[in-house]
């Protein structure tokens, strides 16, 4: 069911410093910061040959990563995103097997303009998983 | 400098259950468990079209992931591995910029039979990074 690893998302307390680390120290290609007010984050994309790293910084008062950074002030890996072809079929398969989908179970439009769902870390080896329909 | 994302490593408290989650619930192709006594882990490889997930379980008395699982008993994302062409050149560049390489700074032969180094999470957005020469 799951396809490509779409991205690894890293929450960072200082977006400029994180972008400089990836650009200057690790020598990767990084984008300009991109504000995503609907998703409560500003994002820098790190383009690798086979996938992306997304450096996420809170934007606005209800950022979904504010709590994570309060617990891990130095930042850390926040989630991994797998691609699926049909997000409703994926959700139904997961729920039929007893896995928990976060929120009300209805896909939202994610930061890439495509339908996404998040899965409960307790059902997936302690890691937060995003599914994105591609 | 960094190239492909070689893998994302997830430490898991129950390798059989984690493999079943990826195989049956997420519908991915997973390998049989592979003992890596020299590295203190048993690994299940999850093959995605563009990269791998490695499910790691402690093996032996001095596993490098035992401490992580003691702090996070449900498991979690342990590290991400980026490929480099020349690990000594990568190390020298990182150290020249003040980034800390773990251990004595000399590459070790990693679980894939290739030279690897680990970088200090405090210098890389709170995430443990492995570099592997390919």
UniProtKB/TrEMBL annotation, chains A, B:
Catalytic EC class: isomerase
Sorted UniProt keywords: Isomerase, Metal-binding
SUPFAM superfamilies membership: Glyoxalase/Bleomycin resistance protein/Dihydroxybiphenyl dioxygenase
Listed GO MF terms: methylmalonyl-CoA epimerase activity
EC number(s) reported in the record: 5.1.99.1
Cited InterPro entries: Glyas_Bleomycin-R_OHBP_Dase, MeMalonyl-CoA_epimerase, MMCE/EMCE_epimerase, VOC_core
Domain (VOC): residue spans on this chain: 4-134
Protein name: Methylmalonyl-CoA epimerase
Organism: Aquibaculum arenosum
